[in-house]
Amino acid sequence: MEIESPVIVVKIGGSTLGAGDTSFADIAALQRDGARPVVVHGGGPAITSWMAKLGVRAQFTRGLRVTDAPSLEIVVAVIGLINKRLVAELRSAGVDAVGISGVDGGLLRGTITDPELGFVAGAVEADVRVIEALAGAGCVPVVAPVAVSAQEPRQLLNVNADSAAGTLAAALAAQRLIFLTDVDGVLNADGRVIRRVPVDTGESLLRSGVVKGGMIPKLEACLAAARAGSRAAVINGTRPGALPAWLSGSLTGTAVG
Ligand SMILES: Nc1ncnc2c1ncn2[C@@H]1O[C@H](COP(=O)(O)OP(=O)(O)OP(=O)(O)O)[C@@H](O)[C@H]1O
Ligand SMILES: [Mg+2]
């Protein structure tokens, strides 16, 4: 019987892509080594800069973007642009990448849980058939975090990319969920990397107030995926070769679960 190749969900942070970043080549190598990578991306800085260009002020609550109707249009448009750029980068690195959003194939269905945040899906469920079809064809899906409303199927919703990655990892029974970000991992009050966050201490770490802003949805997603059986991690994607180094145990980062 053929052993199924492991699914590795990689979330690329908007903050990591720049000089020295080797994520695209690393993802290509991961696939050559027999894994099935699934890429999820955010759009943080690009969305904020487009909002400024268009005169719409970005607002955040607990690390989550507040999305009114005009912001939603910008979010969806800019996330689409980033998706195409990432697909082009991955394809030029030799990966048969296919860009989709959570709207495509009914991948992500969301529910507004906090109306204060506007058109933001707080709870998301995944129907991963489109990912399985693409991965089965040897493609690497590149997922843009936009969902349709589970209640209003014509309504698009913004989804935090970290939450989307966590939901996908759980739904795919992924072997791993790896967050590439711009810090070395989840840091403690002294600024040192917490090497391991066991699932049962994650909630108290979140309540402690040490984890702030954009790290909150990441740790929450890691905990959700870890509870579903994935090995989750937060590592520094700005370090060249971060992905293979983490997988071989030579990089310091935070393992969750
Ligand atoms: N305890 C903590 N440990 C590590 N980082 C933390 C902590 N608390 C807050 N942060 C912040 O979280 C940031 C990472 O989240 P952020 O949302 O900025 O990046 P990203 O999700 O990788 O990229 P993007 O949101 O642009 O796609 C760090 O740069 C840091 O400033
Ligand atoms: Mg973020």
SSE layout and pairing:
Elements: E1 7-12, H1 23-32, E2 36-41, H2 44-53, E3 60-61, E4 64-65, H3 69-92, E5 97-101, E6 108-111, E7 123-126, H4 129-136, E8 140-144, E9 146-149, E10 156-158, H5 161-171, E11 176-181, E12 196-197, H6 199-208, H7 215-227, E13 231-236, H8 242-247, E14 254-256
Helix pairs in contact: 2-3, 5-7, 6-7
The protein binds adenosine-5'-triphosphate (ATP) and magnesium ion.
Question: Can you summarize this structure?
Answer:
This protein has helices spanning 23-32, 44-53, 69-92, 129-136, 161-171, 199-208, 215-227, 242-247, and strands spanning 7-12, 36-41, 60-61, 64-65, 97-101, 108-111, 123-126, 140-144, 146-149, 156-158, 176-181, 196-197, 231-236, 254-256.
